[in-house]
Amino acid sequence: MAKLDSKIPKGPLAEKWSKYKSTMKLVNPANKKKLDIILVGSGLSGSAAASTLGELGYNVKVFCFQDTPRRAHSVAAQGGINATKNYKNDGDSDYRLFYDMIKGGDYRAREANVYRAAEVSNATIDQLTAQGVPFAREYGGTLDNRSFGGVQVSRTFYAKGQTGQQCLLGAYSGLSRQIKKGTVTMYSRREMLELVVIDGKARGIITRNLVTGELERHAGHTVILATGGYGTIYYLSTLAVNSNASAAWAAYKKGAFFGNPGFIQIHPSSIPVLNEYQAKLTLMSESLRNDGRIWVPKKKEDKRHANEIPEGERDYYLERRYPAFGNLVPRDVASRAAKERCDAGYGVGDTGLAVNLDFKDAIAKQGKKAIEDKYGNLFEMYEKITGINPYDEPMRIYPSGHYTMGGLWVDYELMTTIPGLFAIGESNFSDHGANRLGASSLMQCAGDGYFVISNTIGNFLSGEIRTPKISTDAPEFEKAEKDVTGKIKKLFAVNGKQTVTSFHKRLGKIMWDYSGMSRNEEGLKKALKFIDELKEEFWKDVKVPGTNNEINQELEKAGRVADYFGLAKLIVIDALNRGESCGAHFREESQTPTGEAKRDDANYSYVSVWEYKGDEQEPQLRKEALNYEFVEVKERDYK
Amino acid sequence: MSSRFYSSLTKKYVMSLAGLFLLSFLLVHLLINLLLLFDDSRYLFNEAAHFMGTNPLIQTFQWVLFGGFIVHMIFGVILQIQNWMARPKGYKKKNASEENYFSKFMIYTGIIVGIFLVIHLFNFFVLKMSGQVPEFSGHEGTEDMGWLVFDLFQNGGYVIFYVVAILFLGFHIDHAFQSALQSLGLNHPKYTPFFKVVSRLLAIFIALGYISIPLVIYFK
Amino acid sequence: MNIKLKIWRQKNAKAKGKFVNYNLDNVSPEMSFLEMLDALNNKLIIEGDEPVAFEHDCREGICGCCSLYINGTPHGPGEKSTTCELHMRSFKDGHTIVIEPWRSRAFPVMKDLIVDRNAFDKIIAAGGFISIDAGSSQDSNAVLVNKEKADEAFISASCIGCGACVAACKNASAMLFVSAKVSQFALLPQGRVEAVERVQSMVAKMDELGFGNCTNTYACEAVCPKGISVTNIARMNREFLAAKIS
After folding, report:
1. What is the pLDDT of residue B3?
2. Domain span including residue B213
3. Is A1 exposed, middle or buried (0-12, 13-18, 19+ CB in 10 A)?
4. Contact partners of A by the rule of 3+ C-beta pairs under 8 A?
C-alpha cells in the first residue's frame, strides 16, 4: 500500500530547495534520450514542463484534448502572475510571498512546497520575459507591477487582462520549439481515459483519438498529469466548458490519493447568471478590485438604478467590515461577504444575486484613459456580454466556482502516491492550502513546469535508466484498453432520453446549493443522497447519440460527467469530514459571532488525503499532518 | 505552380515593384498624351513621340518596360491561381466583411487592362513599326503619331472601348498604389491614410486624364 | 423569438456535406450564439438526431476555439468579437442564419462546422518562438523595453489563433496570423536575435501549407476579434525583405 511520505528535505526553509537540488540524483544527457515521458495536458504547467523536459533531452509525448496546446484554459487567467522581484522596493521577499500564501491558504498548505513556489517565482518571470511575453512596462522600460487581493505589496506582473493568455503562448512557443527539434511529439485531440500501472509504477496511458474514436496506447517511463482543475463540477463556473477531471480521476482510481478535494475557490467577481440557458460564467479579474469599489444599497431590495442611489445610501461593505484590506480582501472573504449581503436581501439586479463593482471614483480620480489602459479589455468583455457599459454605471458581479485548491496528492517532488506518476499545476493539491491568492496560480503552474518538475523527475528517472522501452503489448495495457472500451459501450448502451448536459446541470446545482460557498452537515448529507440518485438516473436514462468511431462531443461529455459523479461525492465527503471553516471551505457550524470563518487547528490541521477503495465503498481518509515549523499559526485577520 | 517558385512575399515584392514602375510609365505616357490637347499643331506631341521613339536610352528602356508588363502579368496570374487554389470550396454566403472594394477584382480589372494593352499596342506600336504612319509635316523626319491618334478617335466605337478600358485601369490603380506600398512594407499609422487618398487621387487623375483625350478629340 | 438556421452538415472529412435547415423556437435575445446552438443540439438529441458539431471552450473570447462563418462573416456580426461573445440580440425574430465552417485548403473540414487548424501550429513550430532554455534567462529588467514598443508587441501577441483572418480573406491567406507573431517578436529586443531566420522559416511554412497570398484587401483586419491590424503584415513584409537582402 502506498505510503504517505511527503519527502520534505530537512533543514532551514530557505535552504530546502537548493539542498534538494544539489543532492538529488541526476540522469546523464546520453541516458535522457532513452527515457520517455508522457505528459497529459498542455496548459501553462504542461507546456512549460514539456518545453523544459525537451530542452533537457528527454523524449516527451504531450497530449491534449483541444486541437492545439494554445487553447488550454490557462489562457483565460486574466489578472497577473506573482514574483518576489521587489522591483517596487516595497519590502517584498520570498519569505513574504510564502507567508502571504500560507496565511491566504488559511494555514492548510505545506510550508516547504509553498516556499519553493515563492523561491522559483523570479526565475519564472525572467524565463517568460525572455520568451517574449509582453508584460506591461513603465515608461522607463522596466516591468510594471500591480497589487492583488490579499496582500499589501505590488508583486503582480501582468499583460493587461490577458496575462494567462500571454504566459501560455510563451510556454506554447517554447513547446513548439521543441516540436521542431524533435524532442517533443504533440498529440492533440486526444483525451486520456485511463492510466496504465505496471508493477506498481505509472507506465502509460490509454487515449481516445477524438477524431477517429480509436483507443491508443502510449507507454513511457513516467507519466505527468497537468490536467488542471475541476471547477466545472458546478456546471456553471468560470472554467472553459470542456475542462474536466477525468484524467485525475482515472489516476485516483488507480491508486493516486486525492488531497483536499473539498477546497474549491469561489471567485468573488464573475458576471452573474443572466439566463437559464447559460453554459458558463465569465470571470471579471480580481485586479478590478484595485480600483473598483464594491457596494450594495443600504436599503433592502432597493430597485433604483445604481447611478440614482446617492453616496450616503451605499454600503461599501468590504471597506466597512475589513478596513485594513478593504476591497482587496482575499477571494474567499470577498465571496462570502457578497453572499451574506445578497442572502440578507441587499443584492442588486433582477435576481438579487449580484453586487455592484463601481469605477466612478477611480475614473474621477485617474481619468478614463488610465482605467482603460489597465482594464480596457475587461470592460469591453463585460459590455459584450451584458450590453452594459461599465464606464457609465457599475458592473454587476457575483461569486462563482473557479479554482480547485484540492487535487491529486503529491509529495515534495510533485509525485503522487503512484510511483512515476507526477501531478503539476492546478491538478495537484500542493501550494494553495484552503484558498488561493490571486496571481499565484499562473506562478505555480509556470514554476512547477519550468523549474520544479524538470529537477524532481530526474530523481525518479535516474532509477529507470536501465528500464528498457515500455511495451504497449503488456497485459496491463490490454486490460486498461478493455476497461475503457467497456465504459464507452456502457454509455452508448443506456440509450435513454435525457441529454448529458441536463445531468451535468443538475449535478452542478446540487454541488452549488449544498457544497458551494457555504456548507453544513445536513446539506452535505442531502447532497450525497442526491448525487447517488442522479448517478443512478444517469446510468438509466442518459442519451449518447452517434457512434464511437467519429468526432462525438456528446460521448466526450458523457464520460466526463460520469466521472464527476464520483468526484462530486468525494468533494462532499471531504467537506463533511472537515468540521471546521477554513479558507474557501466554510462550514456554517464553525463561525465566529460576526460570521467570520473559524478554524479548528486542534482537530483539523491536516491535509485530508483520500484513497479510492472501489465505486461502492467509502474512500479511506489519511491525514498528512501540517506541522508549522517556520510560521506562527494565527487567526487569519484582514481587519 | 509550386509555392517554392519564389516565396509568396517575394512574388508580392516583384508585383508591387513592377506595378509601381508601370505606374510611373503611365504618368509619363499621360503627360505626353495631354500635349495633344494643348497644342493643336501636334508639334509638341510628335516631338515627344519622336524623342521617345528614337532616343537610344528610352529605346533600351522600352524593353525593360515590356519586361515589367510581362512580369507583372505572369506573377499576377500565378498569385491568383494560388489564391484560388487556397480555397477549393467557397462559401454559400458571400463574405460580408468590409474591405477595399476594388481590391477584390484586381485580376479581372488587370485582365481587361491587359487585353486593352494588346489592342493598344497593335494600334500604335505595330503600325509604327511597319512604317504605316505618315511623316509629320511640321518636322521633317518625324512620324505624325498625333494624326494616328486623331484618326483613331474619330471612331465612336473605339472611343467607347478606350474609355471603358481606361475606367478599369482606374479601378486597378485605385487599389494598386497603396497596396504596392503595403506589400513593400511601407505602412505607417500616421501616413498610410494619406497614401490611400493619394492612391485614389492618382487613379482618378490617370483615368480622367486618359479619358479626356478621346472625348475632346471626338467631340471637337 | 424564432430563428431559422441553415447549417453545413458533413459527417466526416471524407464525406460530402450539405446544408440542412432547422427551425428553432423560444430563442431568447439574452442567449449567446453558442447557447442558441446548445439549445438546437439539445432539441436534436432528444428528437434522436445527431447534434451539430462545433468547437468551443472558454466561451469568453480568449481560447480561439470557436469559429463559424455566420451570414457571410467569420464570427458573425459584431465588432471585435468572437462567436462565443455574440448574442442573439444581434439578430431579429424570424431571421435566417446561415452557418458555414471556415473554408480554406489549409483548414480541412473534419465534421460539420469543425475544421482542422493544425496548420497554425506548424507555422509557429517553424519559428514562432524565441530560443531560450529555462534557466538561462537574465533578470527581466536587465533589458529595458520601450513602453510603446512593448504595448504594440502586446497587441500583436493578443492573437488567439482562431483563423478568422484566413476564413475572411478571399485568398484564404494566413498573413495576418503569421505577421502578428512575427511582429510581436520583431518589436521586442529579445526577439531581434533570431528575427532574420524566424520570418523566413515562418513564411516558408505558411507557403508550403497552401495558404493563399495577400492581396491587401484587409478583410482579415475587419473580422479579427482582437483587432489586430494589417500594419503587422506590412511589418512582416519589411522584415522579410530585410532578411532576404541582408
Report:
1. 43
2. 8-87+101-219
3. exposed
4. C
Distances (CA, A) of B37 to A60, A307, A407, B44, C47: 77, 70, 86, 10, 77
Q: Measure in Å the smallest separation between the Cα of B109 and chain C Cα atoms.
A: 14
**Strand, helix or coil at C99?**
strand
Contact C203, B8 (CB under 8 A): yes
Residues constituting chain C: 246
Q: Distance (Å, rounded) from C-alpha A556 to C-alpha B91?
A: 30
Residue A112 has pLDDT above 70, yes or no: yes
* Selected catalytic residue, list A331, A341, A560, A578: A331
Average pLDDT (C209-224) is 95
Phi, psi of B187 (to 5 degrees): -130, 130
Number of domains observed in the structure of chain A: 2
> Domain range holding A380?
269-401
**C25 in Cβ contact with C2 (< 8 Å):** yes
> How many structural domains compose chain C?
2
CATH classification at residue B208: 1.20.1300.10
Strands (E), A74-200: 81-82, 156-157, 184-187, 190-198
| Chains A and B lie in contact, requiring 3 or more CB pairs less than 8 Å apart | no
Residue A381 lies in a domain: yes
- Does residue C74 sit in the same domain as residue C188? no
Q: Do A129 and C144 make contact, defined as CB atoms within 8 angstroms?
A: no
Task: Using alpha carbons, select from A287, A309, A291, A311 the residue that is nearest to residue A300.
Answer: A309
Instruction: Output the CA angle A572-A575-A578, nearest 5 degrees.
Output: 150
More confident residue, C49 or C30: C49
Which residues is C18 bridged to in the sheet? C9
Q: Tell me if ipTM is over 0.90.
A: yes
Low-confidence spans in chain B with pLDDT less than 70: 1-5, 98-99
Residue C127 and residue C29 share a domain: no
- DSSP symbol at A428: B
